[in-house]
Write a structure and sequence with these properties.
Distance between the termini: 43 Å
Strand content: 15-25%
InterPro entries: AAA+_ATPase (IPR003593), ABC_transporter-like_ATP-bd (IPR003439), ABC_transporter-like_CS (IPR017871), ABC_transporter_ATP-bind (IPR050166), P-loop_NTPase (IPR027417)
Protein name: ABC transporter ATP-binding protein
Organism: Micromonospora antibiotica
GO molecular function, one term: ATP binding
Radius of gyration: 18 Å
CATH superfamily of the largest domain: P-loop containing nucleotide triphosphate hydrolases
Largest sheet: 6 strands, mixed
Bound molecules: adenosine-5'-triphosphate
Number of helices: 7
Helix content: 25-40%
Oligomer: single chain
Keywords: ATP-binding, Cell membrane, Membrane, Nucleotide-binding, Translocase, Transport
Amino acid sequence: MTGGAEAGVTGTAVGRVTGGAAVLTAHGVRRAFDGRPVLAGIDLTIAAGEVVALLGGSGSGKSTLLRVLAGLDAEATGRTRVRGTAAVVFQEHRLLPWKRVGDNVALGLTGPHVRSRVDRALTEVGLADRHRAWPAELSGGQAQRVAVARALVREPDLLLLDEPFGALDALTRLRMQSLLRRLRAEHGFAALLVTHDVEEALLLADRILLLDGGVIAEEIPVDLDPAGRSADRPARSPDQPAFGALRRRLLDRLGVPAA
Ligand SMILES: Nc1ncnc2c1ncn2[C@@H]1O[C@H](COP(=O)(O)OP(=O)(O)OP(=O)(O)O)[C@@H](O)[C@H]1O
């Protein structure tokens, strides 16, 4: 998906991103359901290559905001702009069950090198040999890897991720988090990650935004080791004291009492 104009939200693809430029800007985004405001004026900028996590309580409007930014909500108002190419990964894999894995990844691609691009993307998510499998033959984690490959094959400047690992078991989720860190280090895409999971936000993000009362109520830079700018740097760990302190601060802010 490329950032494009949708009724109510103006968005224009204006070419590839160059270093340091904002890959996403949103200004004054509002959305109400049945007269009840859910987004009440959101301003947001994501720099090229930056990973931003969007945290907030259940029903705070995280998925609504992501859908607006993805150009999937015609009713929202405000301005959004994506520079370059954006791709979305949802909590459910959304693969077409009647198409083989490779054809799902290739969906909508044109040009002479589709097959090799698809093979490369599947290899990058560890599924080089599942090209001809049907979605029903995959585990939940594998299906979600295919969904990531389908996004990756578009060489996105920005990934919009809506609870992408939320339906996976804890071990698979950890594997997917480290896959995302590695892919980000290799490809340098920016990402907006909607998550319920404070630890996931701290492991992956450069910056955390707290959505509350329809606005970005707080912005917290994650001042820990880089979350994967380079594949060989040690990954962040929940064992680090600074990590624990930030986790506690976020849980307090979300109203989760200390154990
Ligand atoms: N299509 C819709 N019609 C009516 N109300 C909606 C619709 N989509 C979302 N809402 C309402 O908007 C509010 C925000 O929903 P949203 O799914 O964006 O929250 P969320 O922060 O992603 O929640 P969760 O963390 O539980 O997924 C909720 O009160 C929800 O009921």
